[in-house]
Amino acid sequence: MEKQIILDGQKIKYTLKISTRAKRLRLAVYCNGDLTVTQPRFLSSKVVDKFIKEKSAWITGKIANFKNSKNEPLNLLTRRDYLNNREKARALISERLAYFNSFYNFKYGRINIRDQKSRWGSCSRQGNLNFNFRLLYLQPEVRDYVIIHELCHLKEFNHSPSFWKLVSRVSPDFKVLRSKLKNGLPI
Fold first, then answer.
1. Which domains does the chain have, with CATH numbers?
2. Which DSSP helix (H) or strand (E) runs through 122?
3. Residue 141 has pLDDT above 80, yes or no
4. Predicted TM-score (pTM) of this structure
């Protein structure tokens, strides 16, 4: 359901999703600047409004960051772009994954290429790796960081110090690359 709220003097529109499966409130700001709030069924709207207001600085900062992002061309890619480039992305990511896995020797399952709005990649508990086709358009070192990041989740399914130590074995400048990814980067 579409709603709106005033945050830091700005009228912010957002989509409210009420979920029977959610255990806690969740905020997501997508690369096009859209805000989605996922609410567990058992919470009241007053609690949701209070939570959104507490997170107002984060929300408005993320929206502004995406609207000013140098990644804007990535936001304009269409479903057709995805369908036309999915196999090219799969080939490139599979090749880089095999190269980086030669340093780790982790076992993984399927490699899925998706058209995602808010993620560059993910790793399932079953060892399947998912990547956004838009990785094709990133700088090679940033793309490699995402691949290494997801590969390391096969061993450490968290963001603990052990996980970051694994990442740094192959990507010692991961903090710089991670920052580029979060703050917008030239394509």
1. 2-68 (no CATH), 74-183 (3.30.2010.10)
2. strand 121-123
3. yes
4. 0.67
